[in-house]
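Quick question: what would this complex look like in 3D?
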Amino acid sequence: MYEMVNNMKESLDFIEKQQKELSVFGGIGALLGWDQMTYMPKQGAMDRSEHAALISTLSHERVVSDEFWQHIKTLSTSIENLEEKDQIIVNKLEEDVEKARKVPSDFVTRMVKATTISYQKWEEARKKNDFTVFSPHLKEIIELEKEYCGYINLPGPRYNTLLDDYEEGMTVDKLKHEFSHLKKGLIDLLHDIKNSRIYQQEPQKITFNADIQKRITDRFLEKMGLPEDRFRLDESTHPFTTKIGYDDVRITTNYQKENALFSLFSTIHEAGHALYELGLPQHEYKNTVISDSPSLGIHESQSRFWENMIGRSRPFWDYFYSDIAQISPGFSEHSTLDAWYQHVNRVEPSLIRVEADELTYCLHVILRFEIETGLMDESIQVDELPQIWNEHMEEMLGIRPGNDVEGVLQDMHWSGGNIGYFPTYAIGTIYAAQLYKTLTSNNPEIIDQIKQGQFGHITNWLHENIHQHGRKYQAEEIIQNICGEGLNSQVFLHYLKEKYYPLYDL
Amino acid sequence: MYEMVNNMKESLDFIEKQQKELSVFGGIGALLGWDQMTYMPKQGAMDRSEHAALISTLSHERVVSDEFWQHIKTLSTSIENLEEKDQIIVNKLEEDVEKARKVPSDFVTRMVKATTISYQKWEEARKKNDFTVFSPHLKEIIELEKEYCGYINLPGPRYNTLLDDYEEGMTVDKLKHEFSHLKKGLIDLLHDIKNSRIYQQEPQKITFNADIQKRITDRFLEKMGLPEDRFRLDESTHPFTTKIGYDDVRITTNYQKENALFSLFSTIHEAGHALYELGLPQHEYKNTVISDSPSLGIHESQSRFWENMIGRSRPFWDYFYSDIAQISPGFSEHSTLDAWYQHVNRVEPSLIRVEADELTYCLHVILRFEIETGLMDESIQVDELPQIWNEHMEEMLGIRPGNDVEGVLQDMHWSGGNIGYFPTYAIGTIYAAQLYKTLTSNNPEIIDQIKQGQFGHITNWLHENIHQHGRKYQAEEIIQNICGEGLNSQVFLHYLKEKYYPLYDL
């Protein structure tokens, strides 16, 4: 008995140290990435790839090391002797590490090489507007993904394995079911809107210079309660959020002259991610596998919640409209609160996902989901993609890309081997609506608080119900616990109808 | 024979890989430091210390690993079979690694712990203006430094060992000789200046706001030829230069409203360091122990050269004066080129080293050298420091600190265990004068080029004679090769007299 306790103490110490080191590597890797996207001089790219490769190699070596695995097994075989906290950690670690160890090292190396080249070829294909520059490399990626699915081999269709890496526990069957309802609902709603009188009117044009945009976004962040000494906002081509340390989370935005709304809503979006990262469990679970998000969908639920349910809501602008009028002189001469609220919720089928409005956004995602599942079950071939893409676009959104840069070549995800990632954007959007429904049903006073620019209760509610749990539960369990049901796209559709019917006088 | 060649190939591969990894760790560590000093949110400090500690531990483990050492020894025992390039690398590696391996790991750990606490106590002592808060920790540092000297044990006084870490090959005896001449010469020159008519006149007050300062410094950097895609300039409390990659070197400055000259000259200073880093050997020596500076003195010779010999020279302002007048409207109404040149070369004994003028600066350094050598040969005790400091200041500069914050507590170096570092500031200053003398004697046309704002020939000359050699030669060998003699403070004194006699009408 004494011997066993001793071994367990040694193993607990080892896994604590190992997880801490992995967490520290994570922070270093995040800084390397953040700097690359924000301040790095252009020619620094070559050295930066060496920095990032070394950190990721050292990190991977530790994850799959035999010593780590033996300590985990020592603990898991007598898990009943551990405190509850350690049981939770060991169970999750065992799952993660077992999965990682199924993948041969040479595969990891081949995948890194393939995606490095494929990303370059994707960029080149975009420059040349020529899908055939990219397609041979995409084929290689697809074959590698199939090989990967063979190693992990979850039950059901191959795509389940890919999905599980981003949205643990989610399945193709479940998504097909939800997305088919959602697709139909969105297309119907879009149809009604396009036939409305208001849709036919010429949309308002509004621009703010970068300085005004900055002052507005700073005001949002201040009101949302982002702690000044634990986060920062910088600029990058594509907005993102990254966690460098428990008290060092960074977001970026992009101030576009011609699209002033972009920086406003992308900042609220990223700030939603940042509040989540800053709220992850710090005490007993700090630097453990639990202090992380259970899925990208849950992460996206936080950003979409703030961006759409809060940031594009009428109560939000009841409060902030006068702020903008104050920051941007002359603004209120050309606009009214009603017109502005209409403006920030303008529905317009468009070709590019990242520029899509709240309503059409999920159609872009469903298109990609349909294509990805087709690629993995081999009902779609890579060479057919441009045509299939354009047909799907026309079917769902009624518009057709003029070229592949506006079509199948628009996202970088596939070039990086991130197949199975896209659905999490829609899952997050649906979860956000479910959370909003529960929050406002149980706390109707929230609406008035938003009108007063008070967001503290919302942040606390999200923290208590989601952030503080980290990975203790799976994403859908968390939603189930809060909302009384799992993923349900009907709630999102209902939310959209309640919002857009009056907006478009339907 | 075949076996040996094979072993050598394997060893060459190993040391190449190991040096590359160390170089990559160096870049990562540099980014962690740069970010900490520039953009990191305040609360990120705790995690950042974990990031930095992990990188430095991994790096140190590699330097002192038995495997590395065995490969180095394999190569060094039949060094005659290697190409010249590899001979140079192996010799330098053997020196470095042998030295590092003399220091027990537990000592390294104790030193890190002691300096971490001692730095905090130094900050606290400054806040409380109370040397006794810091002194027990400084005593511990001194004892650790003595212990360190015992491990390395270079011939001659203990201080030789400390000096060698920053200025390889330099000795206390040599410095005592040079510094005693220099001290006398500087004190005499300062005496003459203080008795001059011009010194008695009320000095001009000039301020520029931060924006003007930025535009002026940008202009300098552009003209000095810093490549935009390989470097950047940011702000930090204390200016510094850091190399994150071969094509990613970063400098910082600080725009002070009340001291507009600070950002101007500190930027030129750091740009001198940056040009050196950007010019280090890239081809055969990239990511090897040779692609580095041979000493801090040589590094400082580059920054001082640009800051003082160029940036505070009359030809430089013949060119840039009109630029400043153009950038800062109204400036030339209150000033003339003559008055400005006088202003940027104002000599004034002051208490703080980092704010000292070109002439008195080295007296601050010599004071610290005298104290450090005294601490190491035990002729000075830590408790006596405040008094000894103040007496030395009075003797050399004729002024006495009103408190220890302005005196013995002003520099952070000792709290970090960096004893033996200070002399390199004066060594660099002397080398800079020697380089300037040789450059302008051999290329008298340089003066006219400076007047035209053309610095390309200067940069090329420095690159060819210094930058491109990296650590192939020791610092003094490099100077000897260029100037025909080693460290010679008489050259610096002569330069000062030639410049300041006319400036002060002597």
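Answer marked as accepted. Residues 2-38 of chain B form the longest helix (37 residues).
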